[in-house]
Amino acid sequence: MKIQIPPLLKPVYLRDYADELGDAAVWVRVNPPREFLAEYAALRERAEMANAGLGQIAEKDSEAMFAATAELSAVGEAFADWYARLWSQGPDAATHWTADETRQLALLDTDPALYSWLTTRSWELIGEHRSREKKK
Q1: Which residue from 16, 20, 26, 87 has the fewest beta carbons nearer than 10 Å?
Q2: Is residue 96 classed as helix, strand or coil in its secondary structure?
Q3: Cα 82 to Cα 63: distance, rounded to the nearest angstrom
């Protein structure tokens, strides 16, 4: 018997962040494939290396500073694309995210903590699914 496992989705209700956001939800794929998770791990490693390099650059080395900040910017763009794909697995295209929308959320001036909360909550749901406890 061949087992076909579809993308499993769980909602993150934004009212859990702030009641004023009502019933809006972001749908998170809680069973992303290994390759997708490996892509995230590689992005984290890139970000850590770029941050470490940035800390070692002398203030007067403008070329190296530009290169390091360009790398951090590129990593940020890649994270936006990654989360957009994580949040766009459901059948309803109206709930899908674009990389641009994810970037806008990450840079939101009116509530800069929302992106961090949403990404953290997404990982919590993935972790809950990946735990060895019986699924309900």
Answers
A1: 20
A2: coil
A3: 29
Give Cα 32 to chain centroid, integer Å. Answer: 12
- Cα–Cα distance between 54 and 57 in angstroms, integer? 5
For 47-83, write each residue's pLDDT tens digit. 998 888 777 776 667 787 788 888 889 999 999 999 9
Alpha-carbon distances, residue 128 vs 21, 28, 93, 123 (angstroms): 24, 12, 25, 8
Q: What is the mean pLDDT of residues 36-54?
A: 91
Contacts for 92-96: CB closer than 8 Å, 24+ residues apart: 95/25, 95/26, 95/27
Between CA 83 and CA 105 the distance in angstroms is 11
